[in-house]
Amino acid sequence: MVRTLMAEKITPRAQDFSEWYQDVVAAARLADHSPVKGCMVIRPNGYSIWEAIQRDLDARIKATGVRNAYFPLFIPESFLKKEAEHVEGFAPQCAVVTYAGSKDLEEKLVVRPTSETIINAMFAKWVQSYRDLPMMINQWCNVVRWEMRTRLFLRTTEFLWQEGHTCHATAAESELKARQMLKIYTQFAEEVLAMPVLPGRKSESEKFAGALRTYTIEAMMQDKKALQAGTSHDLSTNFAKAFGTEFLDTDNTKKSVHQTSWGVSTRLIGGMIMTHSDDKGLVLPPKLASTHVVIVPITPKPDLKLKIFEVCDQLGAAIREDGAVRKLPYTLGLSIDKDETKSPGWKFAEAEVNGIPIRIEVGPRDLEKGQVVLARRDTSEKAFVPLAEVPATVARILAAMQTELLAKARKFREENTHKVSSYDEFKKRIEDGGFFVSPWCGSKESEAKVKEDTKATIRCLLLDDEFRPLESGDRCMITGQESTKDRPNVLAVFARAY
């Protein structure tokens, strides 16, 4: 299917949300399908967003004392088999190399689905004493998981991510690190992507294979489905025991290290698209944009062209040099579209579909009045702004846009989050989508029943420091089990998800 760049050809969200999403990705030239089934090619427009994510998140990670490293793409098959729960969880998704260099390999190589095993093989060499701890590394890399049903950015066979891995002397330290990274991911998603997320803990059935606990941030998309946007795992000593990652403690005894792993991926781009974009195309939070302002000269009369071009150049320089603009937490990207082979209308649609936050129109009638037309992408509002006030207005709108996108998305989530007490009520209302918060008794059987009956899953258990376990009265939505002090129910968030 050939897709046009013109925004009016984008499938409306209300008609087909899935098709709308694919149209936005294609029209904004973010990514394309690779000749290899299930893989994607990230185009420059999409990769610039990933670079912005990398820059900001990398700084946040390093501020906690973590350093970057790199580990091989190929993992000996025997490594995965050392941790039984881990290999069982990832076996269906593994790509395996059996033949290379014109001969069969003596040992099969797994293309990394994640790196806990090979990193532990190195940690076992590097960690000898309590003096070596904590050991904290992160890598930005690609991983391969053989997905059956793929969608650009959201779920592909190969994707980009960061994965952090740490070793600690005690269980308390590893738990603290796992929770610290959950907080960092939460702040990053909301402050940079303007995407509100719900932090929580995964159920036993949904946790990472080989982890003691898995923490998650869950976001609500505009179709009211949930998206797991990042995870942080307390691995306890599971991998350390499998690989012999031990240290000599201060009491002169050998002990296994306690570990964490945590990561986010290019899935964040898909989540950001589905949180903010509209039927005209991409809507970008300013902190992720590479071009924040496009100035479009309108030159119906050839004799005015040079004058209008000159004003556009002067205006662009004034915006770049403005003090308030320079104080923004990113370097402003600005372009002046002087391409005379395309009409102003085409340029307007192009700016909209690509999500450029601010468009400035400079025409002869406006110049006569000493003003320009300033269009804001997220709200589609237009305003006449005096030339002298444009730089300050640009700075003010960009700052407001970042916070208002988050507020709008948070309001949408709140309006579509419901408390339910009966299973019958839940089964009726889940058809309309949203998050459903209800007491849960913790049984795997009841969790499986919800999935079978409704295709919804427990997205997370609300954290103890925000919502305490229910000690009396409240009954499990599914089984009717009453919460008691000895057997407390917990508050769980149910939703259909990507």
Strand content: 25-35%
The order of strands across the largest sheet is 3-7-8-14-11-10-9-22-23-21-20
State the CATH architecture of the largest domain. Answer: 2-Layer Sandwich
Kindly report how far apart the N and C termini lie: 24 Å
Number of helices: 15
Which structural class should the secondary elements be placed in?
alpha+beta
CATH hierarchy, class of the largest domain:
Alpha Beta
Work out the number of β strands.
Answer: 23
* Total domains: 3
Mean pLDDT across all amino acids: 94
* Main sheet characteristics: 11 strands, mixed
Radius of gyration, CA atoms, in whole angstroms:
26 Å
Give the topology.
Blueprint: H1 17-27, E1 31-33, E2 40-42, H2 44-62, E3 67-68, E4 74-76, H3 77-81, H4 84-90, E5 95-100, E6 103-111, H5 116-126, E7 135-144, E8 158-168, H6 171-191, E9 197-201, E10 213-220, E11 226-236, H7 238-243, E12 246-248, E13 254-256, E14 258-265, H8 267-276, E15 293-297, H9 302-321, H10 323-326, E16 334-336, H11 344-353, E17 358-362, H12 364-368, E18 371-376, E19 382-386, H13 390-415, E20 417-419, H14 423-429, E21 435-440, H15 444-454, E22 457-462, E23 490-495
Parallel strand pairs: 3-7, 15-16, 15-17, 20-21
Antiparallel strand pairs: 1-2, 4-6, 5-6, 7-8, 8-14, 9-10, 9-22, 10-11, 11-14, 12-13, 17-18, 18-19, 21-23, 22-23
